[in-house]
Amino acid sequence: MATVGKWQRQDVGKSNFSRLRTTIETAFYGNNVELLTSRREAYKKAVSSPGTVVTDLPVYKPELLNLDEGSKILLFNDGATVGRFAGARKIIGVPGVSEDYFAEIIREAVYNTRFRKMYHAISYTGLHEDFMVKNHILIPESFENTVYNWLLNFQDLTPEYAAMYERSNKMNEKDIFIFTDPDWCHSDFPGGLALFDPKNNCAALLGLRYFGEFKKGTLTLGWSVGNRQGYAACHGGLKKYKFNGSSYVAAFFGLSGSGKSTLTHAKHGGKYNITIIHDDALIINLENLSSIALEPSYFDKTSDYPLTSDDNKYLLTIQNCGITVDEDGKLVPVMEDVRNGNGRAIKSKLWSPNRVDKIEEPLNAIFWIMKDPILPPIVKIEDPVLASTMGATLATKRTSAEKLLPGVDPEALIFEPYANPFRTYPLSEDYDKFKKLFDKGVDCYIINTGFFLNKKVTKETTLGILENLVEKKAEFVEWFGGLKLMNVPGFEVKTSEYEYRDLLKTSMEKRIEFIKSKDIENQGYDKLPAECVERLQNLIALL
């Protein structure tokens, strides 16, 4: 089997168990714990959970999803908080994060659940025998919808995948164990606590209701395992185009709302034979450049999908949306973020009939999706150092999927390295891995899906650029410092103009400032190599 869930008695000791791991895993074996082994069981629990709305919309082909015939789309809403809270994250191993302090907090949190029924659910992260990790999560009674959503989002223990897991590559990694209590509160953590012990594959999610915390909390540890096992951990989408007998494999990296999912799922009018790994969570093998999906389903925003959208056919559950009655007296959802700014739905893998769990063909290109208004619609970077540096300074805007502290400007440009705010290891490890991909011949591009100066880069423009690349029609010309441009009608780049050069210079200086800040923050935990700043300084010198 892939990960270690059972131990030889001589191996039970300090070498394999941390304080947090021991405290968290022990909670799973209490006499107040009920094991849920399938989506069918979890569905029945969720239907009866207080506050659940059983809509009159049927689940599409439930028999293919390990659900009973007649299953309906369920809706459950959170309260005030409808997004992730980055401020809740604490990672053991980062300077200033005391295991002693948090071990005491977790012991008390576990103790305080002893009079509550707890559900133990099991799933897999990783959908191919080359990489599979077993996940365990503990969730209190009254949060049956969370259990159900978690088993829908990740791969449940079907006979097919259980057999795959038994023959999968064995890793020197422990099963993942996650203890949760959404009702927990603590004066030191008014926004909740998401505590990770990545080396021991365990976590505690406390005072957090939003399902995205449970999804990303599980993936956080899965990505951490992938990083240690020689993969690039990717918060991104990946697809393969087949055109004129050749393949083109492209990966897209961007935060929610950047266009990552749109580009991953774009069908291009049926011009190509397209297969998709996923639009959010995957890993890339550093040696052969193959890719593996980490989860089967999609956790998608509902803002772009009104009730009549054909895509809603594939919904399984809905969160943080409204309900009304249609002309036939049926209960139907009110989508489009009417209730709040981050309505969400879990869609089945059937939404993408061209889904695969692994793409063997090597990756051809990585696209950093940025919303930096000084950048043209497409830029090619040929220097591996600069390519990985630009990924480490990926410029974008915050998303409605994130809960922001008071006073934080949601429209401000931020840097989110590799579009992955869920990293549990030093940033330099991602830098090295992506640099290695570029050293092995993977092309690197920046695509701007926001505004170029004052002009919006439309989805059609971006898709046209991708089609030129797939069909090998793209022509690039030298810009400056080894960067190359494609001539995109309506988006002429006037580098000769002083004002524009000054904006470019400022953008690169901000990147340098960001990189240098990592030398100081957390005692240099996320420090990047000096070559990153050197490359950016070289660009500035040419402006």
Descriptive report:
This protein folds into 2 domains: about 190 residues, Phosphoenolpyruvate Carboxykinase, domain 1, CATH 3.40.449; about 250 residues, Phosphoenolpyruvate Carboxykinase, domain 3, CATH 3.90.228.20. The chain contains 12 helices and 30 strands. An 8-stranded mixed beta sheet has the order 13-11-12-22-26-23-30-29. Helix 11 runs antiparallel to helix 12. The model has no long low-confidence stretch (mean pLDDT about 95).
Outline the secondary-structure elements.
Blueprint: H1 19-27, E1 33-36, H2 39-48, E2 53-58, E3 72-76, E4 89-91, H3 99-111, E5 118-128, E6 131-140, H4 144-153, H5 159-167, E7 176-181, E8 193-197, E9 202-206, H6 211-228, E10 231-234, E11 236-243, E12 246-253, H7 260-265, E13 273-278, E14 282-285, E15 291-293, E16 298-301, E17 315-319, E18 322-325, E19 331-334, E20 344-347, E21 358-359, E22 365-370, E23 378-381, H8 384-392, E24 395-397, E25 413-415, H9 427-439, E26 443-448, E27 451-452, E28 455-456, H10 459-470, E29 476-478, E30 483-486, H11 498-517, H12 530-541
Parallel strand pairs: 1-5, 3-17, 4-8, 6-7, 7-9, 12-22, 22-26
Antiparallel strand pairs: 2-3, 5-6, 8-9, 10-14, 11-12, 11-13, 14-15, 15-21, 16-20, 17-20, 18-19, 23-26, 23-30, 24-25, 27-28, 29-30
Given as residue ranges, the uncertain stretches (5+ residues, pLDDT < 50) are: none
- Counting structural domains, the number is 2
| Biggest beta sheet attributes | 8 strands, mixed
Name of the level-1 CATH class of the largest domain: Alpha Beta
CATH architecture of the largest domain: Alpha-Beta Complex
Total helical elements: 12
Shape: globular
Helix content: 25-40%
Overall mean confidence score, pLDDT: 95
CATH structural fold name of the largest domain = Phosphoenolpyruvate Carboxykinase, domain 3
Computed Rg: 23 Å
Extended strand count: 30
Structural class, judged by helices and strands? Answer: alpha+beta
Percent of residues in β-strands: 25-35%
Largest sheet, spatial ordering of strands = 13-11-12-22-26-23-30-29
Through-space gap between termini? 56 Å
